[in-house]
Amino acid sequence: MKYLDEFSNPELAQHLLERIRATTTRRWSIMEVCGGQTHSIIRHGIDQLLPDQIEMIHGPGCPVCVTPLEIIDKALDIAARPEVIFCSFGDMLRVPGSSKDLFRIKSEGGDVRVVYSPLDALTIAKENPDRQVVFFGIGFETTAPANAMTVYQAQRLGIENFSLLVSHVLVPPAIAAIMESPDCRVQAFLAAGHVCAVMGTSEYPPLAEKYRVPMVVTGFEPLDILEGIRRAVTQLEDGRYELENAYPRAVPPQGNPAAKAMLEDVFEVTDRGWRGIGVIPRSGWRLSPKYRDYDAVHRFGVSDVHTDESSICRSGEVLQGLIKPTDCAAFGTTCTPRNPLGATMVSSEGACAAYYLYRRLDQPAEVAHA
What we know:
The chain is of the alpha/beta class. 40% of the residues lie in helices and 19% in strands. The protein has 17 helices and eleven strands. Helix 13 links the parallel strand 8 and strand 9. Helix 2 packs parallel to helix 13. It is globular and about 65 Å long.
């Protein structure tokens, strides 16, 4: 309760807003990388409280949202097989593939199970030696250590009926891809605190220097985000472009050495497709040769899958920060959380879901001022 109260204090939030207003003299565009930060910003109305000159751009930091359609269709192919128990976190079950989702596979008789940890899937594999158990391993650097540990344990324990469908993506290459886009409007970044808690902060100063953009590591509570914005605006106004860690209670500069060692052992860096964005070089992980026998794509031979994206969904532009969810004609009409056209309306961290939950009934209003 201490941190819930302390980092949501309205008086402290007002004080930070006043400092941001006093500092701001020009128009600035700041991207929050993480979908969890997006939801906090929209839920608490932080973007509406900021000065008119500051625009928050929502980045591609939702792991469910950026999982490519090709991987979803591979998951559907594998999950439909009678010999397979397909395990996943719950938010992946409603992500649309080319023609259906995992819920549909389950309703058609597929053995699709929601688990709360990849180790739960490993337990299911031990309890069902006559079945193939597959865990859908998605996410940024945050969730990768647990998935790596599960594969490591499967090999150590000799559990051969377990495999991982891998779709892990990495934040720093995505930042570089955003900055190199000809349509980029981003002038500063709020970096995801939970990613840096695992990986540390060493990858970010070279990006700040190369692209001349301030980067501030922040958490997810209102005061964390406001302090991150304040520091980013201060750097922009001063003409500086550095890394600052505004989340030191959770992020040491070196990250988590044990987790990084496990990642280095189990995974190797590879090019990775991002849904709505395309392939970003060296922006993902796959299982290293030492653990290749636990790769579900290799085990089930689903390397060649044809995909068809929705022709009216603009989630790719939302993920790149080019439009807001409400700029899409399908938002709230043909695309809703019950009938999503794209992953950004499904995930609990998706920008479209956040706008649908907190903003779809909003009327135009003036930005609040103290």
